[in-house]
# Entry
Amino acid sequence: MLRSVILAAARSDRVERLVETAPVSRDVVRRYVAGAAVDDALRISRDLVDQGLAVSLDYLGEDTTSPEQAEQTRQSYLELLAALSAAGLCPPTEVSIKLSALGQMFDEKLAYSYAREICQAATNAGTTVTVDMEDHTTTDSTLELLMQLRKDFPDTGAVLQAYLRRTEADCRELSGPGSRVRLCKGAYSEPESVAFQSRLDVDRSYVRCLNILMAGEGHPMIATHDPRLVSIAEDRVRWFDRTPDSYEFQMLYGIRPHEQRRLADAGHTMRIYVPYGVQWYGYLMRRLAERPANLTFFLRSLGTR
Ligand code: FDA
# Structure
């Protein structure tokens, strides 16, 4: 219930203005976001890479409604990739993009052409792109554009959300040779007609999808902080005889850092998804919805500055 309320607030311009203009403690945002500028993204990436972790950088922004905003997002990624390459961080740093930030909502062709440019820049820099998945109304369009991108950039990663009823079938479709697929639970508020509603059903779906991807010929990217699912995934790595370069674990910056270290120390590739930029509102609200206990911390900070 609280999760749905927070996710509804994530879509509200009024609440967004309220939260953004409130004296939100910088610590709350900093817990999940690297900072506002490319230099912050580079600094945090360097720090994580020096600790033996891989990184996926996300320039914050979504639901772009104007061509100017979409162009600005494209430009930011091109600058980011040039800076990462110059800093010698590609690989193990890649980038994650949201098609809605590139204009998918009002011009799919534009979003596709910008995504292509970003994939080309990533290839030139020696790294890859993963296309984030957003709410279910965009799933078909995102997967279609992803398949187009993969024709020229076969390393482009997909994201599948275990809470969607369709995802087992999508996993089968996307488990072919070399296919990079990030499997996550899903972060949006979705209706029962398309998504499992209970935690147990989502977790069961996650395991079914994980089994398909691990048995397949692709490169599964296991994106969860859930201790039970991590343990099941470690078991599947052994069961399917997966070599360390044929799969990876992924977690979000600021969440379970000790577990991130433990998995890396155990010999798994551990990639940290690091967002940066000033448009942190939607991202932060989804993180609060995942763990309503964080809300207390957040609300307290509203009153302490
Ligand atoms: P769950 O929410 O059950 O959390 C398990 C445990 O992890 C909690 O008990 C807690 O200890 C810890 N935890 C989880 N969230 C926390 C938080 N916010 N603060 C503090 N502790 C927390 N979703 C999506 O729809 N599209 C996408 O493209 C992506 N991309 C993506 C990339 C990566 C690398 C990750 C790790 C996740 C995503 N997600 C995503 C988000 C994902 O769908 C999901 O919402 C979150 O990962 C939370 O789900 P868990 O699997 O961690 O389980």
Remarks:
- Residues 132-133, 159, 161, 182, 184-188, 223-226, 250-252, 255-256, 273, 287, 290-291, 294 surround dihydroflavine-adenine dinucleotide (CB under 6 Å).
